[in-house]
Amino acid sequence: MIGYMGNALLTNRTPIKEAHRLVYAEIHRLPETTQDSLLGRVPTSDRSQDASRQARAASADYFAEFLPCFAIRPAYNQALFVLSRIVGLTRAAVLLSILSYFALGWIVYAWACHYIRPELSAVFSLLLMLMPPISNMGRTPISDAASTLVAVGALYVLFETKREVLGLILLLGSIFVRTDNVVIAALVLAALWLHQRLTFWQMAVLGSVAAGSVLFINRMAGDYGIAMLYYRNFIGTPIAPAEMVVHLTATEYLSAFRSNISAMLQGWLIPFLLLAVVGVARRSHLRNLALIAVLYVLLHYLILPNWVERWFVVAYIPLALSAIAVTQSSPTSLPSH
User: N or C: less crowded end of the chain, CB within 10 Å?
Assistant: First the structure.
């Protein structure tokens, strides 16, 4: 949250020392126990994170060095800045997650209404949105809820309402909320081409735009590269990332890959996969979308083998919906136009 708040202020060209002062002034208004956690005052099992939080709170320079790690969410940072002009930084971060969470719930409800009665859709969407990996997004004041809202909205428009132009705009726009969405974008574009809703060259051009958007965002944000991303996920939280030269070995990657498989199996992936199995067995109208969701999980984990549940909610929701998306006639998912 602190990193996003700092980047939100930088969109208005706020000097870094002033941004540091304003962000930590917001933190000091929070309850003392929350302050202690965000400022690294309470020892945790991750001592590097504690030290990094203390250093960033004490020094505007260390604070500045960490901001590029969160500057790669430009649309979210801009939305946070605009809303902060009305309600303040902390409230803006909280509201963005809450509003995105409730809007996501309405999309799930509207999508379910295509297959089951409205009263059953209300029960289904309520139970789904209350499941921990999804409800936790609404309580976490970072970019994940907004990112999932835009990405799932794109899937709904493309796969249910069949409006390609609006759906593709949302799909590519979701990359500017969170660059991880380039993975789901690549898979969806390939699916649209396979089902003749896009020509090969349309898919290639849009895929290039998606990949180019990620490169452009990373370049403009001053991102430290994938080695630093892996370091932060697998080894520890740096104090001065701009002053580090990071080399990730294949052994470290494989170690992270193996160790996080247990976290994956102990999380919510298997229950959602079982829902998808139910849908496939009953010839779900969304079985192709469920396959895309599974491939997204596998590809995302292959690229970044760390299991954080909120990253995969964009897959969990289609997997759950596939269990109820059963038609009486032969399924026509992704029809040709």
Answer: C
What SS3 state is found at 274? helix
3-state secondary structure 107-176: HHHHHHCCCCCHHHHHHHHHHHHHCHHHHHHHCCCCCHHHHHHHHHHHHHHHHCCCCHHHHHHHHHHHHH
122-to-169, 220, 278, 323, 325 alpha-carbon distances in Å: 28, 42, 20, 15, 15
For residues 159 and 143, is the Cβ–Cβ distance under 8 A? no
pLDDT averaged over every residue in the chain: 92
Q: Radius of gyration of the chain from Cα atoms?
A: 21
Model confidence, pTM: 0.92
Average pLDDT of the segment spanning 15-44: 92
Terminal CA-CA length for the chain: 43
Q: Which of 23, 116, 10, 120 has the alpha carbon at shortest distance from 68?
A: 10
3-state secondary structure of 284: strand
Q: What per-residue confidence (pLDDT) applies to 327?
A: 54
Helix, strand counts (H, E) of the chain? 18, 0
Rounded-to-integer distance, Cα 93 and Cα 202, Å: 37
Per residue in 180-220, pLDDT (tens digit) is 999 999 999 999 999 999 999 999 999 999 999 999 999 99
